[in-house]
Amino acid sequence: MRSGASPRDVGRLALQALPVLAAEPLYVLVDTAVVGRLGAVPLAGLAVAGVLFAQVTTALNFLSYGTTARSARLHGAGRRSEAVVEGVQATWVALAVGLLVLGVGQLVARPVADALGDGGPVADAAVGWLRIALFGAPLILVTLAGNGWMRGVQDTARPLRYVLAGNAFSAVLCPVLVHVVGWGLEGSAVANVAAQVIVAALFLRALLREGVPLRPRFDLIRAQLSMGRDLILRTAGFQACFLSATAVAARFGASSVAAHQIVLQLWNFQALVLDAVAIAAQALVGAALGAGGADRAKVVGAQVTRYGLWLGIGFGVLFAALYPVLPAVFTADPEILATVPQAWWFFVALQPVAGVVFAIDGVLLGAGDAAFLRTTTLAAALLGFLPLIWISLVAGWGLVGIWTGLAMFMLVRFVAVGLRARSGRWAVTGAVRG
């Protein structure tokens, strides 16, 4: 069967996945708006603690992406119960790793906050928020696991409802605890944990209602952790690039780092949309391969890549047209606005490249080709990005050097995943990738 997925199927899965991807940024946005009224020190403390906490969920997203890949194959093979069992095992991993993160996080919260903060009031504020927020780590990881198996069985509607319920509850509770009850910054952390309890409970209830065995299966857990290792290393490559970019931008002065931050946040915004398309590709490609349809998986992969390309071109045209007005939404500082173009046109030109790369990433993740993605991402970081960015620091190239490095990172990945997609070697059929 060579027929691909309809645009409606891809759109449905992507549109339902998008708000789930945006959940964590929305938590941070609500916290920022509410805590911002407390003053500079609490807001700075939230910024430091929020960055630290975000690294946990980002580094452990294999609980979502890896589980989707494995569950989708089994679902495509008509073995839904076994697909859900993958979710059970991912949930056990989430609970174990989450409790470990909670314990270690309590021990290192102070020294890490001191290192990133000022060692004074800002660090104190960050530690207070972080020690409470860490109790939500096991809950967030359970949510990632739940998203993973539900996407695998192509059920993206329930995760959407669950996450929206949690976000709505947090949005109401946060200002009450912070300002009405008077708990200050810590109140926002309590509101987040309370919302995470609700969302994790909904995912656990959905798992229990499936009626599958709940005992740990250590053979499956080992397989998940093996794939998780590759995905964690891949994520580390991304984090090394973007954290280094911010660190080097800061060396060129406040205007440079502020301009970089504006463009980077817009990049993160469009990445959410492209990632939603990648998630649709994961579910559809995994299901096709699980059903033994290598040709269908290739057709779906080609379709989704075209969608990503057109979406990237659309973003490029949109951001080019918005250049005269959009940067001014973020700042009125003339020096920052004068620096923005150094990064802006790289950002615009990279949109079609990003559209293709994100789409093929989703295809290869759906095929369980995590080892290839790990290797090429690290190679792109070590060979394409990091040399250029540190040379730019020494040579004083500013944001032009930084975004040249980011462009090389994306172009190396573009060539690598493009060649891999064309080779077809990723299209390994079967309920479990051998």
Q: Could you walk me through the main structural features you see in this protein, from its secondary elements to its overall organization?
A:
- The protein is an all-alpha fold.
- The protein folds into two domains: 7-216, no CATH class; 234-423, no CATH class.
- The chain contains 18 helices and no strands.
- The chain has helices at residues 7-21, 23-35, 40-59, 62-76, 80-116, 121-133, 137-152, 157-180, 185-209, 218-251, 254-290, 294-322, 326-330, 334-339, 341-349, 351-366, 370-395, 398-423.
- Helix 16 crosses helix 18 and helix 17 packs antiparallel against helix 18 (398-423).
- It is globular.
- The two termini are 22 Å apart.
- The model has no long low-confidence stretch (mean pLDDT 88).
What's the layout of helices and strands?
Layout: H1 7-21, H2 23-35, H3 40-59, H4 62-76, H5 80-116, H6 121-133, H7 137-152, H8 157-180, H9 185-209, H10 218-251, H11 254-290, H12 294-322, H13 326-330, H14 334-339, H15 341-349, H16 351-366, H17 370-395, H18 398-423
Helix pairs in contact: 1-8, 1-11, 2-3, 2-8, 3-5, 3-6, 4-5, 4-7, 4-10, 4-11, 5-6, 5-7, 5-10, 6-9, 7-9, 8-9, 10-11, 10-17, 10-18, 11-12, 11-16, 12-15, 12-16, 15-18, 16-18, 17-18
